[in-house]
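Worked Example 4.2. Consider the chain below.
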Amino acid sequence: MATGKKYNVPALEKAIAIIETLSQREEPVGVSDLCKLVDIPKTSVFFILNTLEQHQYIIKSPDGKYSLGSKFIHIGLSTLNRIDIRTAARVSMERLLGETGFTVHLAILDNFEPMYIEKVESQAFVKFASYIGQRQPLHASGVGKALAAFMPQDLLEQAIREKGLPEKTEKTLTNVHDFMAEIEAIRRQGYAVEDEEGEAGVRCIGAPVFDHYGQLKAAVSITALRTELPIHDIPDVSEKVKRAALDISRQLGYVQTLEPELN
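Applying the procedure from the previous section yields the following C-alpha cells:
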C-alpha cells in the first residue's frame, strides 16, 4: 500500500502564493499586478483577498492596494516565543561537534554568570567534567567572554563590580582595563577566545547567539585541550563557531541585518 501521499488544497495554495508574494513586496500591491505576479485569475485573487481582509491578515489601502496586516506579526512572535533554545540549538551544536571534534556548550546569562544549558560531548579519550547547570566565570570562559562582549554596557559594568575579575590561572585577565580591551576586540571579531584563563591546558572559543529582536540570548562555544587546538587553528575553528552561533540565532528568528544592542 502506498504511503506518504500528498493532498493539496488548490484554494489554500493560491492563498499561500498571495501571502508570500505580498510578504516580498515593499509597497502595497494592486489586484491586477498581484494577478500577474501569482499567475492566478483575477476573480480567484479577489475572493482570496476579500477573505484574508475579513480576518485581518491583510489590509487594503485607500487606493485599493493590498499589504500584509499586523496579525502576521502577532502569529510570528507567538511562534518564536515558543521556540525552546535548546531544541533550536541542538542540530547546529551537533554539526559543530562534527566539524571540529570538540565538545560544544550552550550557555545563558544568569545572575551575571554563564550557565550551561546544553552540552554535546566529544567522543575523544579525554572528556570534560562539565555539566548542564554548571556555572562559569564571565571573564574567564569562552561563553562568558562572548556574553560579556555583547551584553548591555551598563550590565557589564555592574557585573564587574559585583563579581570582580578573580584570578583562576596565571593567564586570567584580572585588570579591568585589559579585560575591557579584550571585550572591544571580541566585539569587532565576533568571537571570544579563552586561552587557559579559566583552567590550565584548556582553550575555548565562544560566539554570541541573538534572538528575533536582535538581543543577546546565549552563547555557544567549543572546549578543547590546548594540545588539540593549536594557535594556528584558532582562526579556522572560530569561523565554524561563529557560523554555528549564527545558525542558532536564525533558528530563533534573528535577522542578520539587525545590529546587537550594546548600550
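Residues 31 and 59 are 13 Å apart (CA to CA). The longest strand covers residues 216-225. Compare this with Example 4.1 before moving on.
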